[in-house]
Design brief:
Layout: E1 11-19, H1 23-36, E2 43-49, E3 53-61, H2 70-73
Antiparallel strand pairs: 1-3, 2-3
Length: about 80
């Protein structure tokens, strides 16, 4: 049975605002957020510190370029 995760084409993006004192703290917290959400290692695609916190966009690649895409295999006849 196919799951929703198996149908993700490439990646999952999460955008949020993290309250932090410095950009470095915000980056550390953003990476920790990915681990706390059981996404493992995530990439920071965008970060903007404004003095009170940081707007951040995280990306977890489900299928990296060139990977064996489960969603494609389900639609290709053998």
């Amino acid at each position: 049975m196919s799951t929703a995760m198996n149908r993700v084409m490439d990646a999952i993006d999460i955008e949020t605002y993290i309250i932090c004192a410095t950009a470095a703290e915000g980056k550390t917290l953003a990476l920790e957020l990915g681990r706390e959400m059981n996404l493992g290692d995530v990439d920071i695609m965008f970060e903007e510190f404004d003095g009170y916190g940081m707007r951040v966009r995280l990306r977890k690649y489900i299928y990296k370029p060139g990977a064996r895409y489960e969603w494609l295999a389900a639609h290709v006849k053998a």
